[in-house]
Design brief:
The complex is a heterodimer. By secondary structure, chain A is of the alpha+beta class. Helices cover about 55% and strands about 10% of the residues of chain A. In chain A, a hairpin with a 4-residue loop joins strand 17 and strand 18. In chain B, strand 20 and strand 21 form a beta hairpin. The chains are: A alpha+beta, B alpha+beta. Chain A: Oligomeric complex that consists of at least the alpha, beta, beta', gamma, delta, epsilon and zeta subunits.
């Protein structure tokens, strides 16, 4: 692993870069103020990759003697990053001087200088430097000021951690400190240190202070919890005492302590009371802490708890629902998600009634994002009702109140729910249909009407129902025939306009425009005034006038269905005929209206076709059995099949989940009570690894053979210098491990490996010259930062001085191409998100398909494999063979960039034709992915 | 419970300032920050995001983001608080939060960040405390600086005195030369900046550190002396330029050389302006006529206070004619008393040094007068007959045939006395600050000599005063001197003795901190000893005849403080 980096400071590129010589001068002659500025410049330079080794001596000579505190602080920053060893790993001579400087500062009368120097020691990793400082560090443990002591404790901790032999008695030292110390922050540091270096001593200390823990401050209590967390894996641990302690900490005054205590409690014990206590603690935290982040994260924790301990906390569903009082929609969503998972037949009534209450509240109260919340609630109730049929009857009426909701989504959700309830619970059908017809007039949007009309078409099974339905339809349509009445009202309008005096008349008269010409007025411009009154028109009629002809076609088929059904049920021919003729009148009316000038746009062919089919069916009704079945039974059976399929899918998923939980016959079964130390270890490691993962220090062990396959030869075998590189791709950087071999029998001096990059790559360090003996070899590591997914090329050369003073030789290296596939990971997103990204992204790269693969599916699989993308189009949509294939693919880079691809293929004889379109936000990805595809197609050909 | 990093970054994820509290590689942290802006969704009302490995908790700062990167098990409640503290600290330091300003303040901010999170653990500090810490104003340091300054001053005084004594000696010597060809050669010496702190010469100008007796030879860098010693490394440069008091040398080694009637006529000013070179200081080194050579011998500063004081003592009583046998009795008193009259600590250390320059009178018996205070703990030189001393107060060597060494001073007796009994305080100081109505303090201070048989010369009482205002001195016995720069009043009384036992001073100063007038320090010199040891007679061992001898006694405070 490369050196740890403690500070990043942006370098201002605009400013003039000073040469080393200038910096030296500034250090030599400057006053303190100027030295401070210079030091800042030097440190920024060093942080950004230039090690400036020539400046070390100047800093020692001219900066260390200063007493200025700001300079002292800057110096600590400088020592942090200043390379302390020669390339051969030995400590630099100069550092001995620096060591003295450290020592003086450790004995400085100013407690802050002492403290900050001690803090710096935590980052010092050279035992040769640390060793002489140890006595001073020890002395600082007894300093008058807590600031010095607390830093001294941490200094001892990190020295001991890295070089235990330097302070062999650190554990005793710290535990003694713990006993005598009175300052809380020092105590905390000591406790944390002890927890990390000697757990038994830490727990021993805990044993001596049980009774005082409640009176500790926040930091100490947290440290206590940390110890318990760590020590509870220990088989000899005093678990009952620990649990008792944690229980009392649940009542702590500090929210953060409560949170940690709850988390620890469930790891200590999975007993019901413990889990419940933890859960209720979480809930109270969510209620009390106003911060949304906290709420969300604690909810996540709660969810984890639920997943792990399942039914134990189901009883608390109602408590969790109380969280809904928080105004943030994200919190509410999460809360409802969790609550829904916890709904059982026992509490479903309560839950639903609570949700209903909340729903009613959304009517009277104005929340932020109210509609979204309402939708959320409706969806939640929907889910509950589907899960537990018995509540469906209870809620369906409440929900139907929302059919008239102006907000599309929630009303649509309601109508979908109603549909599902009708299909699944036949007993409720007639009641719901009646209710539906009552609220018919209140509906507003086309989608809701379509759903409602479909329900009427399918579930109006009695004569009365059908007649009532017909009435409602008449009401929502208004006067018939549509076009004639519209014409009439338009004429009336005109007339009334004529009759009206004043302004209205004026508007009909020719206007004189500013440029003196007459403004012409056409029917279209007056038409706007007609449109204005649309609101007062019956809803469906208004929608039709707004050119929602899809609704028209649905209306037509509904009418067909009820007429056909009426024919079956009723024997009164007259009634049948009048109904039939009325229906046909409506249908023709829709078509005529659609072709008139009253609508915004002319009716589309598909709707006309559909309405015509309905008309024909009605005209020929009794005879054509096939058509009749198609209308009366097929659509419904299709729906019930859909519902059945959905259920099946859900069941399958459940099954799948269950299967995941299942333990293989030959697996070890863990009994938590009988857990041995070894098994427990793994759990403990999980916590530890959380941290290592976060700092990114975990290194994956790759097999040697796979490493070998990534070795690249950089120069030829007959070049004076042979070089090869092993390219190691980490998450955000590329580590080149380069082997250089001197093939000549002369010593090569000043041999420098220079790299430059193309694309979004950045070299982190500046190269250092080496001297290579005859036939000697050397390995160099080069770290290259990658900041976006783009094809990158690293090229470079090796420069060295020849035997003569003036001749410099140069060997040019092979280019190293960085494979973007290392950075692209398959990902999934919803279709809507895909679409929105598709329209949003600016870069498109279109690649024509040119391949020798003959099978469409095989081609897609091949592309997916080579580009690391995931296919978003569901499996069943791809299945079957029709000679065409379209699919969406999606991937995400580890830098968070999205890559979209759309494939359209057609089989033409034996070959595949078509194209792949790749879209992304940045040009780089689109281009490199395109290249990748083009390249791989060709490769396959060979 | 660990904060891994605190960063201020731009909307594109470029770190303007980032401070890591755990070891992690540069590319890792840069990568994490670069991917951060892509993860966040501006429409959300919460300000954290999680990835597989880390959690970001952030807060927008105008055009920038303050981001904490934590591990996923971290305590969010604590992290939110920490984040708020970070943000407050930033707005405390930067007026407008923008890229430029953060860059300007990057180093200050990074040190503040360090105070908030230490090794990943949260420190419970307030903004106020953060300010105090970053200002680094330390009372202790001021105290230490004060002490140092006093020492410097002492050294200066000594120098002046020595200059005078030198002049006198010169005259005297001329006389002697005229009378009998007797002369004295003076060794060269130097004193000045005393070791411990204020290593002001630095590691300058010289590349051969390591050769120069510094760390390597001096027992490694673990050895405190080796390091504090200015001789350590480096040519100590030009002392004359080095802050005034740096190195004044004086030839004061009492190398009583009959044959060599040389002395040097250099004066201090001359020496101060000379660049020093070469070797270390040598006490009692033989001198030669060349002024420059002499100077070159004094080149290194003496870092050791004790030596400096010995030197001082040597020149303390220039008027005393030095006989072939010379005894010096010196005492140092250190006292720490509290301002309400209690005595923390009183310690008197004394020693008797014998210096013989006549080879004929080396085997001596020294009879002390019997009046000295037997409460003191005495220690004799190991070769001195202890029994004889205890019974008869006579100092003589165990082996009467052995002589005392010639030429070099020899400590033959040491004594020490420590007590906490208030009645032993020689000079009690009563400093009485009281708050006056208009936000000022009236300070009444008085001294009283408690031991009537002692005379103190050149007493100076140093009283620090607080605040920015200047004190107005009312009634005063003696003279005073206000040091505005270092904010203290120096009250000088030329002599305190039984006839002149007490005195007082009044002054008024703006300020309301009555504790700020302490510690009061006292300096004085005296030619009497506390222990009352004195030499009654010195006889030759062989025949019991008295030899002519001279002696001098001095008492000076080492650290006389009223806290």
């Amino acid at each position: 692993m490369s050196d740890p980096c403690y500070t990043l400071i942006q370098q201002d590129d605009d400013k003039e870069q000073l040469s080393v010589q200038d910096l030296k001068k500034a250090l030599e002659h400057g006053k303190d103020e100027q030295k401070i500025q210079t030091m800042k410049k030097i440190i920024t330079l060093m942080i950004n990759g230039d090690p400036c080794p020539q400046l070390l001596m100047h800093v020692i000579r001219f900066v260390t003697p200063s007493r200025d505190k700001r300079l002292k602080k800057l110096l600590l920053n400088y020592w942090e990053i200043c390379p302390k060893t020669n390339p051969d790993g030995k400590l630099k001579q100069e550092m001995i001087l620096v060591c003295n400087y450290y020592k003086n500062d450790l004995q400085h009368p100013n407690e802050f200088i002492r403290g900050s120097t001690l803090r710096f020691l935590c980052k010092l990793r050279e035992p040769e430097l640390l060793e002489p400082l140890i006595p001073s560090v020890r002395d600082c443990l007894n300093h008058k000021y807590a600031y010095v002591r607390k830093n001294a404790i941490f200094a001892i901790y990190s020295i001991y951690k890295n070089f235990p032999n330097l302070i062999p008695d650190a554990t005793e030292l710290i535990s003694n400190v713990l006993i005598v110390e009175t300052d809380m922050s020092c105590k905390r540091n000591a406790l944390v240190t002890l927890a990390n270096i000697s757990l038994p001593l830490a727990s021993e200390y805990l044993n001596s202070v049980w009774s005082q823990i409640d009176s500790f401050d926040e930091s100490m209590q947290l440290a206590v919890i940390e110890i318990i967390m760590k020590d509870c894996r220990n088989p000899t641990a005093n678990k009952s005492k620990y649990i008792q302690c944690i229980f009392s900490l649940l009542q702590s005054n500090y929210a953060s302590v409560k949170y940690d205590a709850a988390t620890t409690l469930v790891t200590l014990s999975s007993h019901e009371t413990a889990v419940k206590a933890a859960a209720s603690c979480y809930i109270s935290l969510i209620m009390k802490v106003p911060d949304n982040n906290v709420k969300l994260i604690v909810l996540n924790k709660l969810n984890e708890l639920r997943e792990k301990h399942g039914r134990i906390i189901d009883g608390m569903t109602m408590d969790i629902l109380c969280v809904l009082s928080s105004p943030d929609i994200e919190v509410r969503r999460k809360c409802i998600d969790i609550a829904l998972e916890m709904v059982t037949s026992r509490n479903v009534d309560e839950v639903v009634s609570f949700l209903k209450k909340e729903l009613v509240k959304t009517h009277d109260q104005e929340y932020e994002r109210n509609t979204e919340y309402r939708q959320l609630l409706i969806h939640a109730i929907h889910t509950c009702a589907i899960k537990f049929h018995e509540v469906a009857a209870n809620v369906v009426y409440v929900l139907m109140e929302f059919l008239g909701d102006a907000h599309n989504a929630s009303a649509v959700d309601v109508i979908a729910f109603v549909k599902e309830v009708l299909e699944k619970i036949p007993e409720l059908r007639s009641k719901i249909v009646k209710k539906l017809m009552e609220s018919f007039m209140e509906m507003k949007t086309g989608r809701v009407f379509r759903g409602a009309l479909w329900i009427i078409g399918e579930y109006c099974l009695t004569v009365e129902d059908i007649e009532a339905a017909m009435n409602e339809i008449r009401n929502t349509l208004g006067d018939l025939p549509l076009l004639a009445s519209e014409q009439r009202s338009y004429e009336n309008e005109l007339e009334s306009n004529e009759n009206k005096d004043g302004e209205e008349k004026k508007s009909a008269q020719p206007r004189v425009l500013a440029d003196g010409t007459y403004a012409t007025e056409s029917a279209f411009s007056t038409y706007t005034s007609i449109k204005k009154d649309n609101k007062q028109r019956p809803p469906i009629r208004a929608l039709l006038l707004k050119s929602d002809f899809y609704l028209g076609s649905v209306l037509a088929s509904t009418l067909t269905k009820i007429v056909l059904r009426y024919e079956e049920l009723c024997s009164d021919a007259e009634k049948i005929n009048s109904l039939k003729s009325e229906a046909m009148l409506i249908m023709t009316g829709i078509v005529n209206l659609g072709r008139s000038k009253f609508v915004n746009s002319i009716i589309d062919e598909d709707s006309v076709e559909r309405i015509m089919t309905c008309l024909r069916t009605l005209a020929t009704s009794p005879e054509d059995k096939l058509l009749k079945d198609a209308f009366l039974t097929d659509s419904r059976s299709a729906y019930s099949q859909l519902v059945r399929n959905q259920d099946k899918k859900a069941a399958q998923e459940k099954e799948l989940n269950k299967k995941n939980h299942a333990i293989q016959v030959d697996d070890v079964i863990n009994f938590s009570l009988l857990k041995s130390k070894k098994n427990v270890q793994s759990e403990n490691d999980e916590i530890e690894s959380d941290l290592t993962r976060a700092t990114g220090s975990s290194s994956k062990t790759t097999k040697v053979t796979s490493q070998l396959s990534r070795v690249m030869q950089l120069t030829g075998f007959s070049d004076p210098v042979y070089a090869e590189a092993y390219v190691n791709v980490h998450q955000y950087n590329i580590l080149l491990d380069i082997l250089i071999v001197n093939q000549t029998s002369e010593t090569l001096q000043n041999l420098t490996l220079e790299f430059s990059t193309l694309g979004d790559l950045k070299l982190l360090e500046t190269p250092v010259p080496h001297t290579l003996r005859p036939h000697g070899f050397h390995t160099v590591k080069a770290n290259i930062k990658v900041s976006s997914t783009e094809t990158g090329v690293i090229f470079g050369n090796i420069v060295y001085d020849g035997p003569g003073a003036l001749d410099t030789s140069c060997v040019i290296l092979n280019d190293i191409h960085i494979d973007i596939m290392d950075y692209i990971k398959p990902a999934y997103c919803t279709e809507t998100k895909f679409r929105s990204m598709w329209t949003e992204f600016e870069w498109e790269n279109k690649v024509n398909v040119n391949t020798n693969i003959t099978d469409l599916r095989q081609y897609i699989n091949h592309i997916m494999k080579t580009t690391n993308m995931a296919c978003l189009t569901p499996e069943h949509a791809l299945s079957g063979e029709c000679g065409f294939l379209g699919a969406n693919m999606y991937a995400r880079s580890i830098f968070g960039e999205d890559a979209l691809a759309n494939i359209c293929l057609e089989k033409q004889g034996d070959s595949i034709a078509g194209h792949i379109r790749i879209r992304s936000k940045t040009q780089g990805i689109a281009l490199s992915l395109g290249d990748k595809i083009t390249l791989n197609q060709k490769i396959l050909k060979n | 419970m660990v904060v891994i990093s605190a960063s201020v970054c731009t909307k594109t994820g470029k770190a303007i300032l980032s401070r890591q509290f755990m070891d992690m590689s540069r590319s890792r942290i840069e990568g994490l920050l670069a991917s951060f802006p892509k993860l966040i969704d501006n429409n959300e009302q919460h300000t954290f995001v999680e990835t597989d490995s880390v959690r970001y908790v952030y807060q927008p700062l105008e055009e920038l983001f303050m981001v904490l990167i934590t591990n996923k098990n971290s305590n969010i409640l604590q992290d939110i608080e920490t984040l708020n503290l970070f943000v407050r600290a930033i707005s405390d330091y930067c007026h407008n939060i923008n890229t430029h300003e953060i860059e300007e303040m990057a180093f200050e901010l990074s040190s503040v960040f360090d105070e908030i999170v230490n090794l990943g653990y949260r420190e419970y500090v307030s903004i106020q405390q953060l300010r105090t810490i970053s200002e680094m104003e330390s009372h202790e340091e001021k105290l230490a600086a004060e002490i140092e300054k006093n020492k410097e001053k002492e050294a200066k005084e000594l120098l002046n005195r020595k200059a005078k004594s030198l002049e006198m000696q010169r005259k005297e010597m001329q006389k002697k030369m005229a009378s009998g060809g007797m002369g004295m050669g003076y060794g060269s010496g130097g004193f000045g900046n005393n070791g411990g702190y204020g290593n002001s010469s630095g590691y300058g100008n010289n590349n051969n550190y390591g050769n120069n007796g510094g760390f390597g030879n001096n027992g490694g860098y673990g050895n405190n002396d080796g390091y504090n010693n200015n001789n350590g490394y480096g040519n100590n440069g030009n002392y004359g330029n080095n802050g005034g008091y740096g190195g004044f040398g004086n030839n004061s080694g009492y190398n009583n050389n009959m044959n060599q009637n040389n002395y040097n006529s250099n004066n201090n000013n001359q020496q101060q302006n000379q660049p020093f070179r070469g070797k270390g200081m040598q006490l009692g080194h033989k001198n030669n006529n060349n002024v420059n050579d002499l100077v070159s011998q004094m080149q290194e500063e003496v870092s050791n206070q004790a030596i400096a004081e010995q030197m001082a003592s040597a020149s303390n009583e220039p008027s005393t004619p030095t006989e072939p046998v010379h005894a010096i009795i010196s005492e140092k008193i250190s006292l720490a008393a509290t301002h309400d009259g209690g005595l923390e600590n009183l310690e008197i250390k004394g020693d008797m040094i014998l210096r013989i320059s006549d080879p004929n009178s080396t085997r001596l018996r020294i009879q002390l007068n019997n009046s000295f205070n037997r409460n003191f703990q005495f220690k004799t030189h190991p070769q001195v007959d202890k029994k004889l001393f205890n019974s008869d107060s006579v100092i003589a060597l165990k082996d009467p045939s052995k002589p005392f060494p010639i030429g070099s001073p020899l400590g033959i007796l040491k004594w020490r006395f420590a007590t906490r009994d208030e009645s032993f305080i020689p000079l009690s100081i009563n400093c009485w600050p009281s708050l006056a109505a208009n936000g000022t303090c009236d300070v009444n201070i008085e001294y009283e000599l408690e031991v009537p048989n002692i005379t103190l010369n050149n007493v100076s009482i140093i009283i620090p005063y607080p605040g920015m205002g200047n004190p107005t001195v009312g009634e005063v016995d003696g003279s005073y001197n206000i040091n505005h720069q270092n904010r203290y009043i120096e009250w000088q009384i030329p002599i305190i003795d039984a006839d002149n036992r007490s005195g007082s001073m009044e002054f008024n100063v703006p300020g309301n901190d009555t504790n700020a007038f302490f510690p009061v320090r006292v300096n004085f010199t005296s030619q009497q000893s506390f222990s009352n040891i004195n030499i009654a007679d010195i006889q030759l061992v062989e025949d019991g005849t008295s030899v002519s001898y001279s002696n001098e006694t001095r008492l000076m405070p080492e650290n006389y403080i009223i806290m």
